[in-house]
Fold this sequence. Notes:
four-stranded antiparallel sheet; elongated
Amino acid sequence: MSRDGDRGTATATVHNRGSMVAAMVRLSLLQEDGARVLPTLYDDNYLWLLPGETHTVTLSWPASALPSGRPKLRAEGYNTPPVTGAAEQHSQEWGSRHTLRS
């Protein structure tokens, strides 16, 4: 996770390890208690992922909207179960790799 002025930024990598297309995969940035961090901007969302395909998404939000500094990321799709995971912090970078099985 990094900070650019009064905004937090992060990247998330989503990977479809299933054998079918993962349809309409939507990412949601969450606070520790599960509430959505609003407003969050995504450079891409509602993804269609082929089997084996990986996609990286950049997120940004007002730093004041995430006071704990410990985000979670949820990935859910039309034909995939929701996957929620804690973000891993690596110095100034925030990475979260979510696996979807369709």
